Amino acid sequence: MRSFGLIGYPLGHSFSAAWFADLFRREGIADATYRNYPLASLDELPALMAEPALLGFNVTAPYKTAVMDYLDELDPTAARIGAVNCVVRHAGIWKGYNVDWAGFAESLVPLLDGRRPQAAILGTGGAAAAAGYGLDTLGIDHIFVSRSKRSENTVTYGELDAATMERYRLLINATPLGTYPDTEQCPPLPYGLLTPEHMLFDMVYNPPLSAFLRHGREAGARTMNGRRMLEIQALRSWELFLTARPASGDIR
Length: 252
Prior knowledge:
Strand order of the largest sheet: 2-1-3-5-6-4
Number of helices: 8
Oligomer: single chain
Number of strands: 12
């Protein structure tokens, strides 16, 4: 039996296990399982990776960057982004990939409706880095927004004045704020400055309508949640999982 899963903490919000269960059912795949592994600390990861049946796993917050220290190799794209959300066993080698960027970029295109507005990515973690890479592939200029100044390409939430909000019409929530069960949380934006010309993309998909997106809708802005992104990156992950090979000596 091939085993796959998802690591992160907490995982009560995740739909990944249900998505893969549905995939296995639709495709008649009877020799694979996918389960959640809520790891309170990455100190628990080596024991999990030592399980012979485990051939791959996805990674979600807060471990997309820290997990790289536990891997043998990185795909060049993951190395460039500086974050991993898919890990595959290739015999005795654990290799990290990033397919978040592809899920993000592909799902974002319909929201853009042919436009290329400048973007502000809320957050500076692994999901934000993947979003930045995805925007680069689409030719969209962007900045990052953080609670503190981190680089020349970063502004603080306090710097989001009327002129800045006018300039950056595409707002991307790459933080976990608003994720179930804390559904009323949202990034500290000046939401009163939103207009119908803005577009809001939330990587959060549970709940379907986050507080961040609700503010956007109230202003007449175009909005999209992260459910389609989840589905695309999950499919890309499965394609990578199919390349997995057990460690030498393991029998399947």
